[in-house]
Design brief:
The chain is of the alpha+beta class and about 450 residues long. It has 9 helices and 18 strands.
């Protein structure tokens, strides 16, 4: 597991930082913590088991080898996703932040809702039902089922389509097919195989941490989606991790992980529970991956979307959603001819440093010129944003000085007042200890 992956920044965040990095940072950093938590999640709930099946005994090493040897190229099925990261409701916050930015995009307020990135945060909380279909590296389909709508990502050879039935919007990308000169995420467009939506992808990440700091055992058997499975249990040996245990249900015949459950060290219900409720290992019908934009759908090409993001960010009509001083600075900077392609300003940021090892690895990020995080005063942010921040931020102090810990059930981040960020899947005490030792 790589808890310090959150240190990555986007071009848009870097560009906004060139306008007024110091003041904008105090609003951007807490939202980045939520993004880190979202980036660590997968999908599915506890599935009913009708008795544990009798299977031949197998060692943990043999089961790991069975997973590694699994070469499932075709399958289809239904995945249930349940995530409880201890995050507040994103709905009000998203509406508050995106309302102004949407209006900046032109007619209808685009960024299109069909853009894959717009859907990822929704999977950070609550329960969701997904349908998946895979036919080798060139054809995949993932659909998120909603009450009266459906969102789908379809890769068929060189083409990737993203479709939101609620808004009747489509994003289209055409490049090289995987294995034919192209690559996953070609030109930065997210395809269905790029998203951590299956137990196998999550299990692979967990097994990367299987070293001297990890206990790996086989704990009985289970029935998942009507199939017999072994239960592989992965636990940190180190103290200070927010991860208590990970359980992976592995199909006894194919070696394919069918279910992934992560329980935090604080106990309680699973923080991440992802698994199949139905699965079929036969080849899906070719028509599964066919897609044509419905009549009247608004279609956006992915390269146009990328160009708009880098060149035409514009000065959104913020309408009082931000403090007036910051709103004016953002507008003036964005109207002042700043070249948002020029990322020279990012040179001021130090690269992430790594503290510790294994499950208690902490990423350290230093902001330029010691410009730190100052919590916004009451009334400076929209009510939804204030509620979001106050619900998972704790003031802390120590040898390092003072700062704020923003917490979830899995990923925590300490943002010091002198401009340093410590982030990882570790407890608040572990972050404070690391910050103290770093001085």
């Amino acid at each position: 597991m790589a808890p310090n992956d959150s240190a990555q920044t986007t071009e848009e965040a870097g560009a906004a930082g060139r306008v007024r990095r110091r003041k904008a940072a105090r609003y951007a950093l807490p939202v980045a913590v939520a993004g880190v938590a979202a980036a660590t999640i997968g999908l599915v709930p506890a599935l009913a088991a009708s008795g544990d099946p009798e299977l031949p005994k197998i060692s943990a090493q043999e089961l790991i080898e069975k997973i590694a040897a699994s070469d499932t190229q075709q399958l289809s099925g239904t995945i249930k996703v349940s995530t409880d990261l201890g995050l507040p409701d994103f709905g009000g916050l998203a509406d508050s932040v995106l309302s102004g930015m949407g209006e900046a995009g032109g007619e209808g307020g685009d960024g299109p809702s069909a853009s894959p990135d717009a859907k990822l945060m929704e999977l950070a909380s609550g329960s969701h039902t997904l349908r998946v279909a895979v036919d080798g590296p060139e054809r995949q389909k993932l659909s998120i089922l909603e009450d009266s709508a459906e969102y789908s990502l379809i890769r068929n050879g060189a083409e990737v389509w993203a479709y939101d039935s609620k808004s009747n919007e489509v994003v289209h990308h055409k490049g090289e097919a995987p294995g034919k000169g192209g690559k996953k995420g070609d030109e930065g467009f997210t395809g269905p195989e790029d998203l951590p939506t299956t137990p196998k992808e999550l299990a692979a990440k967990a097994l990367e941490a299987a070293d001297k700091n990890t206990s790996v055992t086989v704990d009985g058997t289970a029935k998942v989606a009507g199939r017999s499975a072994y239960q592989l249990v992965i636990k940190p040996k180190q103290s200070g991790s927010t991860i208590g245990s990970i359980k992976v249900a592995v199909d006894s015949k194919t070696g394919t992980p069918l279910k992934f459950t992560l329980v935090p060290s604080s106990g309680g219900k699973a923080a991440v529970d992802v698994g199949f409720t139905k699965v079929d290992f036969s080849r899906p019908a070719a028509s599964t991956f066919d897609f044509a934009p419905p009549k009247g759908a608004k279609v956006t090409e992915a390269d146009e979307l990328a160009e708009q993001s880098s060149q035409d960010f514009g000065a959104p009509e913020l309408k009082g959603e931000l403090p007036k001083e910051l709103e004016k600075e953002l507008k003036d900077g964005l109207k002042g001819g700043e070249d948002l392609k020029d990322l020279k300003g990012l040179e001021d940021f130090g690269g992430p440093q790594v503290i510790g090892e294994g499950w208690t690895t902490i990423g350290k990020i230093e902001s330029p010129a010691g410009e730190g995080f100052t919590p916004p005063k009451k009334g400076e942010l929209p009510p939804a944003a204030e509620g979001f921040l106050s619900s998972f931020g704790d003031p802390v102090s120590g040898k390092f000085g003072s700062g704020t810990v923003f917490k979830t059930r899995l990923v925590n981040a300490l943002m010091t007042d002198d401009g340093t960020v410590y982030v990882g899947a570790v407890t608040k005490d572990a972050l404070v200890k690391a910050a103290n030792a770093d001085k």
